[in-house]
Amino acid sequence: MKRSILGLMYLIQGMRHVGIDVDARLADMGILADALDPSSIIADEIEWDILQYISQDISPEQGLVIGQHYALAGYGPFLMLLVTSDTLHNALLNGVRFQQLTHLFGSLQLNIEKNFIHLHYQPIDLNTHLGQFRAQCEISGTYKFLQDIFKMMGLEIPDIQIELPFQIPREMELIKAYQQYYGLDVKFECQQASFILKNTKILNIKIPSADALTYRVYEEKCLQDLNKLERSTSAKLTILEYVEEYLEMQNGVIPTMSETACALKIPERTLRHKLQQLQTSYKEIRERLIKQKALKFIEDSAYSIEQVAEMLGYSEPAAFNHAFKRWFGQSPRQYNRNH
Q1: Per-residue three-class SS string for 44-75
Q2: pTM higher than 0.70 for the full model?
Q3: Backbone angles phi and psi of 146, in degrees to 5
Q4: What are phi and psi of 125, to 5 degrees?
Q5: Which residues contact 80 (CB under 8 A, 6 or more apart)?
Q6: Into which CATH architecture does domain 281-339 fall?
Q7: What is the mean predicted confidence (pLDDT) over 66-91?
Q8: C-alpha Rg value of the chain to the nearest Å
Q9: Considering only Cβ atoms within 10 Å of each terminal Cβ, which end of the chain, N or C, has fewer?
Q10: Other CB atoms closer than 10 Å to residue 333's CB: what's the count?
Q11: Crossing angle of helices 317-328/282-299, nearest 10°?
C-alpha cells in the first residue's frame, strides 16, 4: 500500500514538538525533513522502516501527544469531500469509504446500533513497540480530526466516548494525561479503539458547508487519487523499487548508498551486490532520478533554472547547466524554448 507522505511529515513535526531530536535520527538515513516533497506518495514498507529507526527509544505513550499534531490541511480533496457532504451520516460514510486517503495504517469501520454511533479503529499491529507507538499516534490524531472536522463544518462538537486497546497505565500521571485529552470516561483494555457518539439523531444533521456540485467534483478527485494509489501499489517492493522510491522522496537531497542501506537495515556491500545482480548500480539509479526531476522542474515554469539547480542539490547553476547539456544535448534554456 502507498499513501501521502504528509502523514510522515506531520508525525516528524509532532516528535519535534515533544522535544525529540528526530532530525538527527533522520540525518543518519540521509533524510532532511524540510526537503521532503509533500506531493509525493510513500510505500508502507519505506515509511515503516523510517519510523522503526526514529522511534526506537520512544515510549509508545508519547504518541498520545505526537498524534495531536496532525493537521486538517494535509487531507486535501478528502477533507473537502467531507465538508461538502449533505449530512453528517454521509460524511462519516465517506470517511470510511476513502480511508486509504488518510494517514492511517489501521482500518476504520462504522457501526450504528440503537442510539449509538461507533467509529471503530483496528490497529495494524499491537504486538510490537512500533505498532503500539503508531496506534497511539493514529488514535490521538483521529480524535483531534473528529473535533476539528466538526468545527470546520460549523457544527457543535458532540460528546465522544473513547475506548482504547491499550493496557491501563500504572502511573497515575499518565492516566490523568489520557483523561485530560480523551475525557474522564476513557476506557482501556478494549478489543479495538472506538469513538462512540451517543446520539444517532445527529446523523441527519445538515452540514452548513454542503454543496452538491462541489461534492461531485471532490468525489471524483478522491476516486482518481484512490485509483492512483491502487495502481502504484505492488504486493511487495523489490529492492530496486525500494531504492528508487526512497531516493525520490526529497527535493535537493539524495541519500548516499550507505544511508539508504541503513533504511533497508542491510550492509552497504549487500545493497551494492543486490543491485549488481539486477544489472544496475546506485550511481545509475541516482543519475536517472536526477534527470527525471530535472525535466519535471524545467517544464514547470514556476521554477527558475537557479531554483531547479538548488532543488537538485547543485551548489552552482553552471554545474547543473553542464550536466543537463550532457544528458539532453542542450541547455535548460534551449530545452524550454524547444518545448
Answers
A1: HHHHHHHHHHHCCCCCHHHHHHHHHHCCHHHH
A2: yes
A3: -60, -45
A4: -165, 125
A5: 214, 218
A6: Orthogonal Bundle (1.10)
A7: 92
A8: 23
A9: C
A10: 12
A11: 100
